[in-house]
Amino acid sequence: MAKQKKAPRPKAVTPKGFRDYFGHEVTERAEMLRRIAGVYHAYGFDALESSAVETLDALGKYLPDVDRPHAGVFAWEEEDDGWVALRYDLTAPLARVYAQHRNDLPTPYRRYAMGPVWRNEKPGPGRYRQFYQCDADTVGAASVAADAEICAMLSDALETVGIPRGDYIVRVNNRKVLNGVLEVMGVTDEDQAADVMRTIDKFDKVGEEGVRELLGKGRLDASGAYIDGVGLAPEQADPVVAFLTSKGTDNEETLANLRGAVGESAIGAEGVDELAQIAALLEAQSYGPDRIVIDPSVVRGLGYYTGPVFEAELTFEILDEKGRTRQFGSVAGGGRYDDLVKRFTGQPVPATGVSIGVDRLLAALREKGRIEAREQGPVVVTVMDRDRMADYQAMVGELRRAGIRAEVYLGNPKNFGNQLKYADKRQSPVAVIEGAEEKANGVVQIKDLVLGAKIAENATLEEWKERPSQFEVPRDQLVAKVREILDGQGD
Amino acid sequence: MAKQKKAPRPKAVTPKGFRDYFGHEVTERAEMLRRIAGVYHAYGFDALESSAVETLDALGKYLPDVDRPHAGVFAWEEEDDGWVALRYDLTAPLARVYAQHRNDLPTPYRRYAMGPVWRNEKPGPGRYRQFYQCDADTVGAASVAADAEICAMLSDALETVGIPRGDYIVRVNNRKVLNGVLEVMGVTDEDQAADVMRTIDKFDKVGEEGVRELLGKGRLDASGAYIDGVGLAPEQADPVVAFLTSKGTDNEETLANLRGAVGESAIGAEGVDELAQIAALLEAQSYGPDRIVIDPSVVRGLGYYTGPVFEAELTFEILDEKGRTRQFGSVAGGGRYDDLVKRFTGQPVPATGVSIGVDRLLAALREKGRIEAREQGPVVVTVMDRDRMADYQAMVGELRRAGIRAEVYLGNPKNFGNQLKYADKRQSPVAVIEGAEEKANGVVQIKDLVLGAKIAENATLEEWKERPSQFEVPRDQLVAKVREILDGQGD
Prior knowledge:
The structure is a homodimer. Chain A has helices at residues 24-42, 56-59, 91-101, 144-160, 175-185, 190-201, 203-215, 237-244, 251-262, 266-284, 342-345, 358-367, 389-401, 416-425, 436-441, 449-457, 462-466, 478-489; strands spanning 21-22, 46-49, 53-55, 75-78, 82-86, 109-118, 130-139, 168-174, 218-220, 226-228, 292-294, 308-319, 325-336, 351-356, 379-381, 406-408, 430-433, 443-448, 470-474. By secondary structure, chain A is α+β, with helices and mostly antiparallel strands. Chain A has a domain at 379-489: Rossmann fold (3-Layer(aba) Sandwich). Chain A has an eight-stranded mixed beta sheet with strand order 2-6-7-14-13-12-8-11. A five-stranded mixed beta sheet of chain A has the order 16-15-17-18-19. In chain A, a hairpin with a 5-residue loop joins strand 9 (218-220) and strand 10 (226-228). The interface between A and B is large, with 111 and 111 residues.
């Protein structure tokens, strides 16, 4: 590093909205990504890692007339490249990669990608400006068999990372059905269609009656403010409401209701047919509505996608910040977006895919106690005599060769209490002690720190008091005894 | 995505110096990182993933007086955060993290980190602006036992990823020895010391005689240009040359030579003692000079580090671009840097660590044929009848449940030749065919594509001609036959 000029000391902080991840937070995410990648790979998807930095042009955000680029992305100007930016998702880079390499890639191109993405948005509790996504997409396949495959794979991926059947549901909707609904409503004006779309997005919050009011004259919201309506006639709202509430007791009933909602619309009928095909393909593979279900009340993303839309939701309840139970909610979403590659090539290229929100999924598993909240630390070999470091290194070497995580204490060994405090901070299961006396007698002391902590916590419990938490064993039984204690701690 | 205005089509390219990684390039790197992390973890190191974006201040690059920040980093200004930048290595962020969280972290803090770093430097062949590092560091341990541990761990890591003993060497040097050499030379002026350091850096290229010339009056370089010398007296160069050429036939001889080179210098003697301790600790653990050796000719990084310096080199020969043999060279480096955290806290904190250049190490393994250059693709189930998609999906389901990577062809199935071309492009080992006739007879056709390719290549070889590459088997033997073919292809 270059020599520092006398300058005020820098602050040891991340930029706003960024954070660091420690120990098990990192390894658990890596393990989750590895498992999801295993599922994607088994389905024939190939890995892709695109560069984190893209031209702003390729990402599809445009510079306004002012100095700073569009909000939402981290962007800056390079002398030789113009404006570049950190990717804000893994889909926009896929479109660029496919357009750039399409002559060398197979068609259809099934690819998966995992890694951080960056959003220049206002951070909040649990909302960071850098987070992980784990995507799988099929580019160049127009068949809804590709959509059905994505849904089945998503279901497999969730079960593979530890969400049991019954604790999640993948819901499927279709933008074309909504287009059919707009057609039978007589909404042809693009701006009005966009207004209807925005209203539909609020269905989760305001319900059927709220949607009717917002499509009509307007609505007094909870804060007392009056929200202007879209201004449609009351009967024009009927197909929308029929669409949103068409979920029946099974897919067959739902599909029948949807056929009613889209009436004579050709695009609407096409959309319902697609959903029927997806349901049939999935049911033939035993992905029944307990895992994947047609559900027209899923409206998130309907504005973005061009065909089928999927969303995976965890259905178990958790306690929110205020101690109220609520459903955990969405952990993955996706759908068909046939226009993305066209930006580059001028030719429409069908594509469909899904993105799993890995950090949310990890939070869910921690919430349910399905993964350990803390990682076990290494066995710590203490240093009683700093001139015999080689002896202590030999011990950790033996332990590691037996597959046991182990280390020698490398701080100042003078104060032995500090060594045990260190082992405590590391969540070490076992400490090993060999002083001059032990050395002379050919033995080592082995402390069971997990049991020791239990005894300290429950000092009145006889059952703990009677069990020893420190053992003296011959030096050559070090590994065997540590293994025995570790195995016992699993109980 | 927001609706696109009519704009010229964006170019489908990465920014200059960036690239995409496909398929096995991604999975092989992930596997290498996983294995190295396993070694680091077994040594008691904890994972850390710091944010990719840091304040420029924390990274330790300072703004010049002009508009653009220091070259070398990708940096930009945020309204609410000032100048921020992409990390250029994993060490500067570690210093920030340790300074920020030191009250919560154990001391010593052993951590590993892996991920991309970004350099805003001129790209060249094989040199990209985004590349991976995989680091391990111990913060807060002043003992050279920490340095010895890093060297042993580096040796283990290299063997774990597939570099056999004898194909690599970890060389260890010490900045303090060089400081001792400067002392006995009588070089006390900081600028002059820096000049000597720069000269030493050229030892690899110019050799002993060149170093003598550059320390004295100067030297005519290969291009015919005259390079001014440092201007020292000829005898002043002696200790430097003694230092650089002190490597003996074993560590003992090297250490004796070094003691000669540093003469009466106290700091020099301390440096030699440290090297002696490192050698003794490592030899006691059987890390002899066939794996880790004291080698004062290692000068890379001596200017940056404050104590022991390590470098791992692959010693086998490869062919360069021009077909000449050369040694593969350095794949990892590190050392002790006791001043890094001090920037933030004002207190010196001892630290030592190593960084493995993962992309170079992967290149070395590929060069030696130790990892497959291409990944095997999935079994492809072709589509003879698009109405029986569910049947084909059932086949891939069965194959996947048996642990076999498999997929249904999802492109337009009309042209069967395209389906086989697709399987070829995917490097598929096997294609499965079930037309109406097969369906009626309860059989499937299974094509061995690897054997088929061999036959096509060597059509004259009788041994291939006699072996069938396509088999008709009962439908219920699909999985067993595919498994048999895949196992046979491994031969």
